């Protein structure tokens, strides 16, 4: 870890004024790890724990506003979230450990970075180290020819196959969350579908934030009347493990047919993966095993497995079928 200065911001305005050439720190559950690994080397840390962004509030239109400083545990156990956005509660509680969830924040979880071992190797991107285009553009991707069992099969490029690790973000993709940001250019909102970016030729750019931007809130739309939601996570062990495949489903069934459907997947994509192919295969169709199987085939039709993770294609299909059965039962 390299030397840095530390500032504690008493207000949003003060935080933004201190943000140039700095990193915001909240729970620190990701950032401090990355500083120890020399992935992140901020000259200044701006502590935002005093900012008034730790509330969960109902919106006049029936939606829910989540402050960026709301801890993951508080969000998962919030009564309104458990009642109307069960998929989000289930996703958060499936991730990390209770200790980490007590510290991690909503804003920080949106910015969680990949667990790719090559990316987190301290010498990645350096002479004699592993190539990592996410760490050091132009140095290559060691995962392409290395051990890539946990890597992505959707949204990859020839420059990066790292998987996005967040469970919370997968649920928010299915809920169509909207992210509020303040920064040098003022206030703006970003749909979560546009927040995380595909690696393409620039895997070092992971989201739509610009220098000095601060996430302030996340809005969840009004719950869909009559809909059920669920999150299923498949992994190597029962707790404190990242997904090999996961599925977040929001569905409403009327008269045996699917009248509303949102599908997102985790553990298989380079970003929280909204599957519009699966949704197209489900909407208006009878809620049957045959429909679910067709949706799963559509969702994985563009999968590009690597030498060690072809199993994820079938695993993700089964994960989707099972979660669709749960959400529509």
TrEMBL record:
The protein's name: Xanthine dehydrogenase family protein subunit M
Record has Flavoprotein as a keyword: yes
Entry keywords, A to Z: FAD, Flavoprotein
GO MF: FAD binding; oxidoreductase activity
Pfam families according to UniProt: CO_deh_flav_C, FAD_binding_5
Domain FAD-binding PCMH-type: 1-225
Residue ranges of the TM segments: none
């Amino acid at each position: 870890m390299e030397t840095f200065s530390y500032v504690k911001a008493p207000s949003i305005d003060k935080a933004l004024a201190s943000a140039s050439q700095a990193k915001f720190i909240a729970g620190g559950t990701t950032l401090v790890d990355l500083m120890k690994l020399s992935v992140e080397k901020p000259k200044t840390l701006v502590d935002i724990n005093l900012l008034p962004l730790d509330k969960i509030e109902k919106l006049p239109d029936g939606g829910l506003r989540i402050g960026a400083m709301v801890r993951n545990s508080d969000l998962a156990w919030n009564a309104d979230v458990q009642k109307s956005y069960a998929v989000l509660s289930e996703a958060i509680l499936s991730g990390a450990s209770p200790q980490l969830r007590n510290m991690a924040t909503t804003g920080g979880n949106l910015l969680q970075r990949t667990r790719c071992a090559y990316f987190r190797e301290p010498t990645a991107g350096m002479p004699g180290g592993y190539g990592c285009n996410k760490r050091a553009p132009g140095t290559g991707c060691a995962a392409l020819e290395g051990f890539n069992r946990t890597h992505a099969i959707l949204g990859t490029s020839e420059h990066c196959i790292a998987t996005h690790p967040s469970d919370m973000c997968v649920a928010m993709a299915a809920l169509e969350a909207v992210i509020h940001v303040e920064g040098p250019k003022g206030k703006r909102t970003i749909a979560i579908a546009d927040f995380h970016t595909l690696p393409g030729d620039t895997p070092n750019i992971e989201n739509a934030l610009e220098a000095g931007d601060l996430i302030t809130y996340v809005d969840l739309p009004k719950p869909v009347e009559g809909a059920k939601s669920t999150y299923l996570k498949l992994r190597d062990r029962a707790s404190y493990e990242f997904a090999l495949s996961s599925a977040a489903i929001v569905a409403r069934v009327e008269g045996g047919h699917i009248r509303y459907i949102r599908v997102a997947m985790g553990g298989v994509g380079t970003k929280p993966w909204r599957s519009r192919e699966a949704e197209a295969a489900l909407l208006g169709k009878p809620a049957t095993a045959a429909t679910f199987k067709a949706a799963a085939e559509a969702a994985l039709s563009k999968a590009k497995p690597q030498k060690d993770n072809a199993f994820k294609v079938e695993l993700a299909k089964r994960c989707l079928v099972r979660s669709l059965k749960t959400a529509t039962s």
